[in-house]
Every structure is written in structure tokens, then in C-alpha cells.
């Protein structure tokens, strides 16, 4: 990926870096293309998650049914799926101190990782609104 593409994705996800007084909402942001290639990553996904784990996570997220999937494993971090709406998942980690939210759109899948003090209740509206813009 060239610098211009990387800059375009960085500008796109800028809205997910809102600071609501408790730090930045997206502790990690990852974007897959429709074929499972990582087109953008930052934060937790770049620092803590291996390439193999990202490939496995894409397989889970691209399974439209997701009825068989109740958890996402990322290099020792386990996230339990608590909500699945049309393949957009919400999953929480250990003691609900971290979580994942995915949004499907025509150019791929966006995944946002959040950490305490943010919760599903505070993070989902921001990410869902961003997902609606991506799908528009």
C-alpha cells in the first residue's frame, strides 16, 4: 500500500478518534478489504495482534451467518460475541474492560477495539453512526 492510500484511510477513520474526556475511543482500528487483506491498522491491532490472528479474525467476521461463532480469539485475548446484527458484531473481552465492534461496508470490514472507561454502551453509537456513513 502506498503512502497516499494510507493517508486516505487515516483521514477516513479520524472521526473514530474522538476524545470524550477519557482518552481516544478507538484504542485500535483495523480495516479489511473485501478479500481479507489488511488495508489499514493502527494502535492495538498493529502493536498487539499477529498477522495470523488478523487472518483468522477476518474469517470469523466475513462469515455472514456467524451463528456458529460466539467468540473471537486474538493472540490470547478472548472476546465473546454479545450482539450480531447483519454480520456487524459487538464482542466484549475479559471483565468487559475491552471490546470489539465491527461494521461491514462495501469496501470491506471496519473493526474498532475499545478499552475501559469506554463500554459497549458508549462505543456502539459512535461506531454505528460511522458505519452508516461508510455504507451511504
Automatic annotation (TrEMBL):
<dbReference type="InterPro" id="IPR036140">
    <property type="entry name" value="PFN_sf"/>
</dbReference>
<protein>
    <recommendedName>
        <fullName>Roadblock/LAMTOR2 domain-containing protein</fullName>
    </recommendedName>
</protein>
